[in-house]
What we know:
Elements: H1 2-17, E1 23-39, E2 42-62, E3 65-74, H2 79-93, E4 98-99, H3 120-132, E5 140-158, E6 163-181, E7 184-194, H4 199-216, E8 220-221, E9 226-232, H5 237-247, H6 250-254, E10 272-276, E11 298-302, E12 305-306, H7 313-318, E13 329-333, H8 339-342, E14 347-358, E15 364-376, E16 379-384, E17 387-391, H9 392-395, E18 399-401, E19 405-408, E20 411-414, E21 417-425
Parallel strand pairs: 8-16, 9-14, 13-20
Antiparallel strand pairs: 1-2, 1-5, 2-3, 3-4, 5-6, 6-7, 9-21, 10-11, 10-13, 11-12, 14-15, 15-16, 15-17, 17-21, 18-21, 19-20
Helix pairs in contact: 1-2, 3-4
Amino acid sequence: MAEIKNTALDTLLEVLKSSGADAWEVTDREEAGWEFYFIRHRLDQHRAKNVRSFSVKVYRKFGEFLGSAAAEIACDASADEMRRTVEGLRSDASYVRNPFYTLNKPCKADGGAAQEAPDLEAISGDFLRAMASAPETDTEDLNSYEIFVSRIRTRFLNSEGIDVTAVYPSSMVEVVVNARKDGHEIELYRLLNSGTCDRNQLVKELAETLAYGRDRLATSPTPALEKFDVVFSTDPAKELYWYFIDRLNTSSVYRGISDWKPGDTVAPASLTLKAVKYLPNSSKNAAYDPEGAPIRDLTLIENGKAAVYWGGRQFSQYLKVEDSFQASNFAVSGGTESEAELRTGDYLEVVEFSDFQCDFFTGDIAGEIRLGYLHRGGKVTPVCGGSVSGNMPELMGGFRFSKEQRQYDNLLIPSVTRIQNVTVTGVE
Length: 428
């Protein structure tokens, strides 16, 4: 089997080298994994998979311009099929006119221990035990769940001589939670991504979701609170921090979506944002980015001030940013208050939205409340309906976040974020 696979890649490389393309890139990606499908806690089916494919990008140079086109090629494609696909890409690339840029060249990755192949059996066992220990009750339980555990191997090669390989785990759990009360029933859905399995965190996530299902059936309509403090402590909080990350991407800056510059004050004074090469239990712990550049630790925002841009080769070169790479893991720190300190006084903690978005171009935030906890006058009331809205630049002065952190796959952020003067519309 290994000999067949090597022959397929060798054939593709020969086709590319003789195609007349001015430059090319190939990603050889193989995913080996196990899948489990449960109805409640009864195993309905399970299967193993091993999928391999080639991603190919071909470049054509036209004076001061560079064209490109990309496609997937099956690893069992014949040499003639590969030639036809590559020739089609050469033709398609001739219709594209981007300002010229060069591809990455070989560069030794910094630091890091030798990669070990993830143990699918051990990872799967951790997930199975975690799901079995969910704190269910007679009225809140797991309706169904699916577990996907994979070992990813990517090998990247380009016409400049790069040939690098990364191996890392990637997992996903899909869960449907049921809650029942007085003849009414509700479902909550979760899609949880990670590298391996953090059993304690997974059980905590399940316990929270079961409790949210219970409380969702005992809500009152959200009152019109006008300008009010809002606390974010669950998955939607990610959108607030992606706003900072995306606006420092070279693509956003070059396209005019972001006007941030290094040295600008762009965040609360204590906030520090870093791109990190390795984040425990992330599904993005590859040593190299999709263009073969080594990933490393890099401070993007320090104490509220923009430090550097990050991004892919093309737009980084346009902005004259050298030694660039596409970051995959991010960590936000700098909170000066505890979770308990941020949860004092009057505030609305929204834990479930029908949808929550933060537009990184305008900074506008908006979301319809599915479940929140209104803390007012020493009383806590579960509420539903209405919405929250605001604008990040306008709200920045009232932005507070905790010392404690919480990880969402490849993003480590403060576990509690409190923002003052958010507009809260009600349904009363």
